[in-house]
Amino acid sequence: MTGFPTRIAFDEARAIIQRVAASRKLPGEQMALSRAHGRVLAQEVIAGIDLPPFDNAAMDGYALRHADLRGDGASALQLIGEQFAGPSLELRIDAGQCIRITTGAPLPHGADTVVMKENARLEGGRVHIDPAPKPGAHVRRQGEDTRVGDRLLHAGQPLTPSRIALAAAVGMASVEVSQRPTVAVFTTGDELVEPGMPLQPGRIYNSNRELLMGLLRSDGLEPTAWPTLPDDPVRIESMLRDAAQAFDVVITCGAVSAGEKDHIPALLQAQGRVHFWKVRMRPGMPLLFGELERASFLGLPGNPVSVLATWLTLGRGLIDVLQGSTAARPRLFARLAAPWHKTHDRLEFLRGRLRPCDDGSLMVQPNPADGSHRMRAAADSDVLIVLPEQAMEHATGRVVEVLPY
Ligand SMILES: Nc1nc2c(c(=O)[nH]1)N[C@H]1C(S)=C(S)[C@@H](COP(=O)(O)OP(=O)(O)OC[C@H]3O[C@@H](n4cnc5c(N)ncnc54)[C@H](O)[C@@H]3O)O[C@H]1N2
Ligand code: MOO
């Protein structure tokens, strides 16, 4: 098979995925804020009001004019009314007067300061204040957080709860977000048996389906698991075509390497398009990326840890760019708690366990069970340790990038 890049560097694979995904970016849709969590924003959000929308109290207490307070801590002001958080009563205070107020209530006209209840004592209609608050204390000014016309959010930002809350705070009930890709998930191989069924000799339980579905769900997707593909090229072709006509993304795991039953790369080349096959990474080397019918196609290698590593490092990037996300994931670095000798010159994503040190830095303990079938080591770990291409010896204390999962 030829006519496409193969055995490419990891960065090249990532660049190809980004380029192809950008050209297949999904359209936007209007979505109620209550359903928009985790979606990628497809519009700018401009503030239509100030935040706070009016001057208001930051504490329960009394609103007053600071000029009326005496410096010796013996001030007493006349209580003339009360303003609670809610409709503004448009109250006004004059010299020597104050108004009872609660947190969030609009400040009466003439008032410039709030004394908290704990520093005030009401006696016979007069409020005795001790100690005196500072000028302007406990007042939240109109527009101090946001001004009308400010650009609050921009297209490409994933909607976190605080961003959704900001849009709600300026009164938006819905926003335009990118459509979320629909994803079909396939496992492959005649050796697979579903958990709960008897296990015959030579067969193994299907663990990749749960792994992949879980990884996709953790990224906010609602994937659909299809029946396992048998090692039969005719059936594989018809099931994959069906899925690729209906879904935005088709993900398979297994049947992408060099074996007699690894039918998927040839199928994709004949019936669709291959953008690359094989990346100089470990695990995950036989990764396949292309297009079939209307779908982007990701063929992950079958070894369970390869599924984990290829999804985390490359697959989710496809989903991000299809949705127009411009957010870079936060990067973490840690020092190796033990030396590691690489036995190959590919880029390695080793499993490890992260722990904080007293000096505020992070250490990572590599798990010695580095085979791509060693799911237990993956389950015992919480990060992938990135060990660059070429470099073979990695001494204790060396700073390495880690990818949490
Ligand atoms: N001659 C070569 N052999 C292999 C190569 C190679 O370059 N030349 N690459 C090796 C590497 S690296 C990997 S990774 C695997 C990838 O193989 P496939 O993607 O074709 O996957 P399968 O052969 O179908 O399965 C590999 C392995 O994973 C188990 N498996 C598959 N599906 C599941 C599942 N749903 N749940 C649990 N386990 C699963 C399967 O039984 C195999 O043991 O190829 C190497 N070989
Ligand atoms: O590239 Mo494979 O995933 O190492 O076993």
Automatic annotation (TrEMBL):
Q: Which Pfam families match?
A: MoCF_biosynth (PF00994), MoeA_C (PF03454), MoeA_N (PF03453)
Question: What GO terms are given for molecular function?
Answer: metal ion binding; molybdopterin molybdotransferase activity
| Keywords of the record | Magnesium, Metal-binding, Molybdenum, Molybdenum cofactor biosynthesis, Transferase
Q: Which GO terms describe its cellular component?
A: cytosol
The keyword NAD is annotated on this UniProt entry:
no
Q: What is its EC number?
A: 2.10.1.1
Which is a GO BP term held by this UniProt record?
Mo-molybdopterin cofactor biosynthetic process
User: Which InterPro entries does its entry note?
Assistant: MoaB/Mog-like_dom_sf (IPR036425), MoaB/Mog_dom (IPR001453), MoeA-like (IPR038987), MoeA_C_domain_IV (IPR005111), MoeA_C_domain_IV_sf (IPR036688), MoeA_linker/N (IPR005110), MoeA_linker/N_sf (IPR036135)
Annotated pathway, please? Cofactor biosynthesis; molybdopterin biosynthesis
Cofactor requirements of the protein: Mg(2+)
- Where in this chain does the record put each MoaB/Mog domain? 184-321
Query: From which residue to which does the signal peptide run?
Result: none
Gene3D superfamilies associated with the record: MoaB/Mog-like domain, MoeA, C-terminal, domain IV, Molybdopterin biosynthesis moea protein, domain 2, Molybdopterin biosynthesis moea protein, domain 3
What reactions does this protein catalyze? adenylyl-molybdopterin + molybdate = Mo-molybdopterin + AMP + H(+)
What is its biological role? Catalyzes the insertion of molybdate into adenylated molybdopterin with the concomitant release of AMP.
- By its UniProt entry, which NCBIfam families does this protein fall under? Glp_gephyrin, molyb_syn
* Family the entry assigns: Belongs to the MoeA family.
Protein name, as recorded? Molybdopterin molybdenumtransferase
What taxonomic classification does the UniProt entry list for its organism?
Bacteria, Pseudomonadati, Pseudomonadota, Gammaproteobacteria, Lysobacterales
